[in-house]
């Protein structure tokens, strides 16, 4: 009986194996089934050997009263439980003439694969570190990743959704200004329904540089619309009276006064307090340095905040001056206007190292936002991918901070608000090697009323304003404070009454440490790197060369230094040759440089 039962059992195991392979829809693991079979078999024999009945393993024949006759073909093995029993029974039927499913299904391959280590997405520390590094790079200023999102998603969407205009839609009014790049008019819409909340507008008819200004204004509208005048639309129109076409740029009318207009008033800065806060909310403090300091601080914070937002999106204005800062009657804040000279360093637009003649009264001593040795912008994709590196090497945003520093000075010292006063300051400052402490010594040796008044403001609260001013007008662009750091300066961020002195001193120490002069060798290495540019991109300004000469270590060159210098000389020569060859070919073939970003250019 036992033999018969065993035969049945073995057949059942084989069938169970087949059934498991075919009916459970899982991978067929021959090993698992055989394992189960061996276990069951040994249990079976151990029961027999110990003289115990195999009854528990063998079912009774149906209908047989107490009979223990196993039937071949449908033996009812209970060993694997009721499920296995059913399976055995069914598989005994299914298995006939079909063969073991594993032989049919080439289970060996599956078995082999099941023994391999599990594969799939695995998180490893180096993988995480690399991903973080890439993300940090793509999001660091000027923002490669946000740039692609802006360029390929937001810009086309905006193009689709925003209303567009023609010149017939506008009625031009009073002329507001005329500059090198165009004429500006106050205007209104011939049909006010064309624009939601349409009020008075400003229209600028600009020459070929208008395309750049449209680009910058559209970028700003998407990235930081509150920092600049509210831009409505820009389009190209043909002008029959003039040669060539002209660009029409339209903004909402922000207000009638620029910071220059407000500073020209002898009641400055109290007149700004009135427009900013309203007559009812002006400060209770008596008129004097302290109250003036508060008002000037508010103005400076707004200017730096707008600059910070522009810089965060990769735009450097390059023409920051009181005439280009307008007071918005609606939002009661100062906004930046005139982006015609701005450069978008995210994609290299309007970045031509030597093309712009900026306002010399407010331009930083380096004159150019990038080292003039940095080659002109490469194709857009390359420019975008390289932009974080170039930004970190050149600190182009610090150019605007210098201009903002001069505005700070003008607000503090009444005698510097006129053109002649500012020109005199610039001359003295340059002679003193752009050292603001040295300039202070000079003017304090023969102080007048305005100078005394100005230093009284700057020396308030332990000289915190003087500290900020020094950081903003440093000669070296890379050592100047950024708009973002300036906003965190204790001049703007006052701690509470109790913690004030301690916290303020701490913060000041941190800012001083980060702004510290870099070591001589770092300056030397960066100057060498800067020198390694192309002829096409131009040379250093005289001031830069003077500074470099002063800063270069005087010790004799080591072998490594000489080798590095020779390598750089060779590299310069090669790039110069390539540049001049390309220029010659362009000239010969009459190839014009095409700006891909100018959608009106043919
Ligand atoms: N959105 C605006 N709202 C109100 N007034 C504006 C606005 N934009 C410009 N203006 C006025 O128009 C004047 C000229 O504007 P803008 O500086 O943009 O022109 P420009 O041709 O570049 O002049 P410039 O070359 O002298 O800088 C400004 O000084 C300002 O008074």
Explain the overall architecture.
Keywords: ATP-binding, Kinase, Nucleotide-binding, Transferase. It holds the Pfam family Pkinase. There is one protein chain. By secondary structure, the protein is α+β, with helices and mostly antiparallel strands. The protein is 50% helix and 9% strand. It contains 22 helices and 9 strands. A 5-stranded antiparallel beta sheet has the order 1-2-3-5-4, covered by helices on one side. A two-stranded antiparallel sheet has the order 6-9. Strands 7-8 form a two-stranded antiparallel ribbon. A hairpin with a 4-residue loop joins strand 7 and strand 8. It starts with a helix and ends in a 13-residue tail after the last helix. The N terminus is likely disordered. Bound molecules: adenosine-5'-triphosphate (ATP). Adenosine-5'-triphosphate binds next to strand 1, strand 2 and strand 3. Adenosine-5'-triphosphate (ATP) binds next to strand 1, strand 2 and strand 3.
Low-confidence stretches: 1-6, 18-31, 54-99, 518-522, 524-556
**Quantity of strands, as a count:** 9
Count of alpha/pi helices: 22
Q: Calculate Rg over CA atoms.
A: 40 Å
Task: Give the names of the bound compounds.
Answer: adenosine-5'-triphosphate
The strand line-up of the biggest sheet is 1-2-3-5-4
Structural class: alpha+beta
For this structure, the quaternary state is: single chain
Give descriptors for this structure:
602 residues, alpha+beta, 22 helices, 9 strands, five-stranded antiparallel beta sheet, two-stranded antiparallel sheet
Short description:
Residues 170-492 form the Protein kinase domain. The protein has 602 residues and is an alpha+beta fold.
């Amino acid at each position: 009986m036992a033999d018969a039962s065993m035969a049945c059992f073995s057949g059942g195991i084989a069938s169970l194996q087949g059934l498991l392979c075919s009916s459970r829809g899982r991978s067929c693991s021959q090993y698992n089934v055989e394992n189960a079979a061996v276990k069951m078999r040994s249990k079976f024999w151990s029961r027999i050997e110990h003289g115990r009945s195999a009854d528990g393993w063998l079912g009774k024949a149906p209908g047989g009263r107490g009979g223990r006759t196993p039937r071949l073909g449908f033996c009812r093995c209970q060993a694997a439980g009721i499920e296995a029993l059913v399976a055995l029974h069914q598989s005994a039927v299914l298995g006939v003439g079909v063969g073991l499913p594993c032989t049919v299904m080439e289970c060996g391959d599956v078995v082999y694969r099941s023994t391999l280590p599990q594969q799939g997405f695995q998180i490893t520390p180096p993988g995480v570190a690399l991903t973080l590094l890439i993300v940090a790079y793509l999001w660091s200023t000027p923002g490669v990743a946000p740039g692609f999102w802006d360029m390929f998603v937001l810009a086309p969407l905006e193009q689709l959704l925003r209303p567009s205009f023609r010149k017939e839609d506008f009625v031009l009014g009073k002329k507001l200004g005329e500059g090198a790049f165009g004429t500006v008019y106050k205007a209104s819409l011939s049909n006010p329904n064309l624009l939601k909340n349409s009020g008075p507008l400003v229209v600028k008819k600009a020459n070929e540089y208008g395309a750049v200004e449209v680009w910058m204004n559209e970028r700003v509208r998407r990235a930081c619309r509150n920092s600049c005048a509210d831009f409505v639309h820009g389009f190209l129109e043909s002008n029959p009276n003039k040669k060539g076409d002209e660009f029409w740029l339209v903004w909402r009318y922000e207000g009638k006064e620029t910071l220059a207009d407000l500073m020209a008033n002898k009641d400055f800065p109290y007149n700004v307090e009135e427009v900013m806060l309203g007559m009812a909310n002006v400060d209770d403090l008596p008129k004097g340095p302290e109250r003036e300091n508060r008002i000037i601080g508010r103005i400076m914070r707004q200017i730096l905040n707008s600059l910070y937002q522009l810089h965060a999106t990769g735009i450097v204005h390059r023409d920051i001056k009181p005439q280009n800062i307008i007071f918005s009657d609606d939002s009661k804040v100062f906004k930046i206007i005139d982006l015609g000279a701005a450069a978008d360093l995210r994609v290299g637009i309007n970045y031509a190292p030597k093309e712009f003649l900026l306002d010399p009264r407010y331009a930083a001593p380096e004159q150019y936002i990038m080292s003039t040795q940095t080659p002109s912008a490469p194709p857009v994709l390359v420019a975008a991918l390289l932009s974080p590196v170039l930004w970190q090497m050149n600190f182009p945003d610090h150019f605007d901070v210098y201009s903002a520093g001069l505005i700070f000075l003008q607000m503090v010292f009444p005698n510097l608000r006129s053109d002649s006063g500012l020109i005199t300051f610039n001359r003295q400052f340059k002679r003193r090697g752009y050292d603001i402490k040295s300039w202070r010594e000079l003017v304090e040796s023969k102080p007048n009323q305005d100078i005394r008044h100005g230093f009284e403001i700057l020396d308030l609260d332990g000289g915190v304003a003087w500290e900020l001013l020094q950081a903003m007008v440093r000669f070296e662009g890379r050592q100047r404070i950024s708009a973002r750091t300036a906003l965190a300066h204790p001049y703007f961020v006052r701690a509470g009454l109790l913690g004030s002195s301690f916290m303020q001193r701490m913060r000041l120490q941190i800012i001083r440490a980060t702004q510290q002069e870099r070591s001589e060798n770092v300056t030397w290495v960066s100057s060498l790197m800067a020198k390694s540019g192309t002829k096409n991109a131009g040379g250093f300004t005289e001031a830069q060369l003077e500074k470099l000469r002063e800063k270069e270590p005087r010790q004799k060159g080591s072998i490594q230094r000489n080798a590095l210098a020779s390598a750089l000389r060779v590299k310069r020569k090669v790039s110069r040759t390539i540049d001049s060859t390309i220029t010659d070919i362009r000239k010969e073939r009459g190839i014009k440089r095409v700006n891909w970003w100018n959608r009106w250019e043919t």
